[in-house]
Amino acid sequence: MDNALYATLTRQSGLMQEMRVVANNIANANTTGFRTEGMVFAEHIAALGSRSDSLSMATGLVRDTLGAQGALAQTGGTFDLAIEGDGFFQVQTPQGLRLTRAGAFIPNEVGDLVTADGYQVLDSGGAPIFVPQGVQTIAIAPDGTLSADGQAVGQVGLVMPANPLAVTREAGTLFDPGGAVDPAEDGRILQGYVEESNVNPIQQISRMIEVQRAYELGQSFMDKEDARIRAVIQTLAR
Fold first, then answer.
1. What dihedral do alpha carbons 28, 33, 36, 42 form, nearest 10°?
2. How far apart are CA 91 and CA 158, in angstroms?
């Protein structure tokens, strides 16, 4: 196969991956705590010999997460929490410790503070947070201190991954820290708010159009190149 076709074919594959990423961003434009994803492209060049041109291929296999602050929406919910600044909430899942910015929590039937999926929210020491039953008021301070009727009963943990490069993204709004976590120093918690998705829908739709046009141009080139090669073969076969 000609080098030009190799380059175009691998580029087409990367554009398909990016289209899926952009479509997922648009679908989650209203998902609390969602983080915009982008695609990172790389070029790989291999030598084929002293008498041959090098082989060039593009790949789009790395996804990059945009960490910009999302808008804060006031809900008034007692257990709706938003992070202003850096940091993540810690939640315990069957796969282990995970991080999230989605702070729409609720107490379960035994009083543990959990996510909408039922995962326990952890305190600053990594233990589940218990919400006392039958109290009049629940207050959560900017540093995460949880008080019931004026008495401190726990502290919502706010952390940052010790190694940001080890963090991997999972489905929805969860992140695997890939190792240890440290206390977040530059973040604060706002009770009665949630952080909205940081997706810019207009920007993402514009990007989707750009990717679609780039894919169509690549497909047009491959069709023309295929027709050229067929014409050469037919000519030589006469």
1. -120
2. 11
Place of tokens 């992140």: 175
Residue 232, token pair as written in the block: 């050469």
Is residue 99 within 8 Å of residue 173, measured between CB atoms? no
Q: Rounded to whole angstroms, how far apart are CA atoms 44 and 10?
A: 10
Distance of alpha carbon 90 from alpha carbon 100, whole angstroms: 7
Backbone angles phi, psi at 150, to 5 degrees: 85, -5
pLDDT digits (tens, 9 = 90+) for 65-99: 888 999 999 999 999 999 999 999 999 999 999 99
How far apart are the C-alpha atoms of 194 and 81, rounded to whole Å? 5
What's the pTM? 0.82
> Which H or E element spans position 147?
strand 145-148
Angle between helix 201-237 and 3-27 (nearest 10): 160
* DSSP state at residue 171: S
Rounded Cα gap, residues 62 and 23, in angstroms: 16
